[in-house]
Specification:
The protein has 5 helices and 12 strands. With about 290 residues, the protein is α+β, with helices and mostly antiparallel strands. Strand 4 and strand 5 form a beta hairpin. Keywords: Biotin, Ligase.
């Protein structure tokens, strides 16, 4: 997920790094020192002030040459952001974490790569809970939810894209300090609005990337098996979609209504319909209707 610039500044007039004193820039040197280590997953952490899309940039870089697994690209601000289904995502400069990572899970069968967005969701939720002190939940397949007041709000999202034959770029966007008057839509939220005890982006990013390294390592060591790695069980435990009546808006202008009862071994959401059958959904938009 890659947030689009909503500041109104022209593309050739980048926002000052210190234009909002409540939103200091990331410390790229400290991030590299805290994340890049011998034997670790993260080999390089690049922070740019402004770009169109970190996902697009990293996919293009991976296509140009032999870019190693473990490259992280972080942007303070983005001007051509997109989420799933090419939706726009707006966020002011330095109001969140907007980054992409390159993974090359050679040991894992390609058929299991569909678990990567769900794995990233688990890692992000785990990392944020530890560092921000905010209860988070996952909406299948790629949204991060927080509670603002008594409302469930979307505070982040994930976008995975193939990068050549052996790579995947995963983009993450998280609203950190977004204020109520800055919300792009009423159903959006942020860690700050959810009562986070820590909104420092440097420790939050370190916590999320360390959690992602941990979960990716477990999954890769298990050959991508979601049960053996503990990923399937953990995702189900944190998934706010399960146990709800939902409407799945499917490709081809079709829809399916049912109770979300499970996430299967392929990462698909299983709906129990009124017809008495269980239908797996592998792609589409999910609308939460009510608790079952």
């Amino acid at each position: 997920m890659t947030p689009r610039d909503s500041s109104g500044s022209p593309d050739d007039a980048p926002t000052s790094r210190w234009s909002d004193l409540d939103r200091p820039p990331l410390n790229s040197t400290a991030l590299r020192r805290g994340l890049v280590r011998d034997g670790g997953l993260w080999r390089r952490v690049d922070v740019v002030q402004r770009t169109g899309s970190t996902n697009s940039d990293l996919v293009a870089r991976a296509a140009e040459g032999d870019l190693a697994e473990g490259v992280v690209l972080v942007a303070e601000e983005q001007s051509a952001a997109r989420g799933r289904l090419d939706r726009q995502w707006t966020a002011p400069a330095r109001s969140g974490l907007f980054f992409s990572v390159l993974l090359r899970p050679a040991e894992v069968p390609v058929a299991r790569w569909g678990w990567l967005p769900l794995l990233t969701g688990v890692a992000v939720a785990t990392g944020l809970s530890r560092t921000a002190g905010v209860d988070t939940a996952l909406k299948w397949p790629n949204d991060l939810l927080v509670t603002v007041g008594d409302e469930e709000r979307k505070a982040g999202g994930i976008l995975a894209e193939r990068a050549g034959d052996d790579g995947v770029v995963i983009g993450v966007g998280i609203n950190v300090s977004l204020r109520a008057e800055e919300l792009p839509v009423p159903r959006a939220g942020s860690l700050a609005l959810a009562g986070a005890v820590n909104t420092g982006r440097d420790p939050l990013l370190r916590g999320v990337l360390r959690s992602l390294e941990d979960w990716y390592g477990r999954w890769r060591e298990a050959g991508g098996d979601p049960a053996a790695s503990g990923l399937q069980e953990t995702y189900a435990a944190g998934c706010a979609t399960l146990g709800r009546m939902v409407r799945a808006e499917l490709p081809g202008d079709r829809s399916l209504v049912g109770e979300a009862v499970a996430v299967d071994g392929d990462g698909r959401l299983v709906l129990a319909t009124e017809a008495g059958v269980q239908e797996p959904v592998g792609a589409g938009d999910i609308v939460h209707l009510r608790l079952a």
